[in-house]
Design brief:
Helix content: 40-55%
Order of helices and strands: HHHHHHEEHHHEEEEHEHEHHHH
Low-confidence stretches: 123-132
Largest sheet: 6 strands, mixed
Shape: flat
Structural class: alpha/beta
Distance between the termini: 28 Å
Number of domains: 3
Strand content: 5-15%
Length: about 400
């Protein structure tokens, strides 16, 4: 079944029904399936039941690539691409719409039960519905911790719409409660009158009152997905991150729900080092390349302290001049480094190392939309897609060597 899935993904096929039909009509599929024709429901249940094991295939394929000498990590590149989720942007709703739909659903249920049972109770089930640093930095860090907890413990998306309604409502309330607690902690900190280093605060903080009801919107089809900006406008999807080497082999593949690449540089480097260690590779990256969206001064400094050179332009290609307040210090140092012959030659490797990888997966093989829902399921699917890419690279390398 695993071989069948890998071959199907290599052909750009992910529909379980199309795979079932191919096992009857396509000679290669028939050989892989040993003349059997697994039912599409069996294939779909296999993927769902073993998603963690399937995600682990990425590491096994990377180990095979390492044995063939394809996993050289002197220079690595990190980038992200936006991939459509299995959800519609029209399903993004706010808290008021959620509450209204839940109440309308409850009224419809009550009306149906009144018509069925009259004044009698009947054998109904339990109720289904329930009636600058400063402050901004505290709120941002609290939300980042909440997002990290959700990423560490991804939950499957409920199949029934009423359950998804309740889950979406719970998430918005959880985000509001996180903001309320962070605001209380910040105000308690300011009430002490002194900073952590003993200095006195200046003027009192601006008054702030968290909203009475959660703001923001959430998608009812896939609550983990977000509206992110792609090449051709905004889409409902995920930010699929990858790290590649000069052989265009993917060394790490992760899923982020935040559309911007800012803040993902160090986590992706750590993911790369975990994957390399699991594949038995002791070699450490020497140069890390990324585009301007990954510029994060603190993360870059910590990576430099590890002995890894970081090359990231402080200005995007769209800016003819330097960005406001991005002059002097490390900004000018990086511009001088990239303008040098060595720095320019190294950075010019970034685009050929990683952009063709996304083009192969998304456009040549048509894997431009996730078929599963929920952060955990999407992560497993993304790792299977990238493992298939690595397997094809290994196949071509083996044929060339022969």
């Amino acid at each position: 079944m695993v071989a069948l899935l890998l071959y199907a993904y290599a052909r750009g096929i992910r529909s379980s029904r199309v795979i079932e039909r191919a096992c009857e009509e396509d000679v290669a599929f028939r050989v892989l399936a040993a003349q059997q024709r697994p039912d599409h429901a069996t294939i779909a249940r296999f993927v769902e039941r073993h998603q963690n094991a399937i995600a682990g295939l990425f590491g096994e394929v990377l180990t095979l690539c390492a044995r063939s000498g394809l996993v050289k990590v002197g220079v690595i590149a990190v980038d992200g691409t936006k991939v459509h989720a299995n959800a519609s942007r029209d399903e993004n709703v706010d808290y008021e719409q959620l509450a209204r739909e839940i109440l309308e659903e409850a009224k419809a249920v009550d009306a149906a039960e009144d018509e069925l049972y009259g004044q009698a109770r009947g054998d109904e089930l339990p109720p289904e519905f329930a009636t600058a640093q400063g402050r901004r930095g505290w709120l941002r860090e609290a939300k980042q911790r909440l997002e990290a907890e959700r990423a560490a413990n991804p939950q499957p998306v409920p199949r029934s719409r009423p359950k998804r309604l309740n889950e979406a409502k719970r998430r918005l309330e959880e985000e509001l409660w996180t903001e309320v607690r962070a605001n209380r902690a910040y105000e308690s900190y300011r009430a002490r009158g002194r900073m952590k280093d003993g200095r006195r605060f200046g003027r009192p903080p601006d008054p702030y009152q968290p909203p009475a009801t959660p703001d923001g919107r959430i998608n009812l089809t896939d609550p983990d997905s977000r509206v992110v900006k792609g090449l051709r406008g905004f889409l409902q999807g995920y930010n699929a991150q990858a790290v590649t080497n000069e052989h265009q082999v993917v060394l790490a593949a992760e899923i982020e729900t935040v559309g911007a690449d800012f803040g993902h540089l160090e986590p992706m480097l750590e993911a790369t080092q975990r994957e390399l260690a699991a594949a038995g590779i002791d070699e450490s990256p020497e140069v890390l390349l990324a585009d301007a969206g990954y510029w994060h001064g603190e993360q870059m400094q910590r990576i430099l302290d590890r002995g890894i050179e970081v090359l990231i332009p402080p200005d995007t290609g769209r800016h003819r001049t330097t960005r406001r307040n991005w002059d002097g210090g490390r900004y000018d140092e990086m511009r001088e480094l990239l303008a040098s012959e060595r720095g320019g030659a190294l950075y010019r490797k970034r685009q050929p190392m990683i952009e063709p990888v996304f083009a192969q997966m998304k456009f040549n093989r048509g894997l431009d939309r996730f078929r599963r829902r929920g952060r955990g399921a999407v992560r497993a699917e993304w790792r299977l897609i990238t493992a298939t890419h690595n397997l094809l690279k290994l196949h071509r390398h083996t044929l060339a060597a022969a």
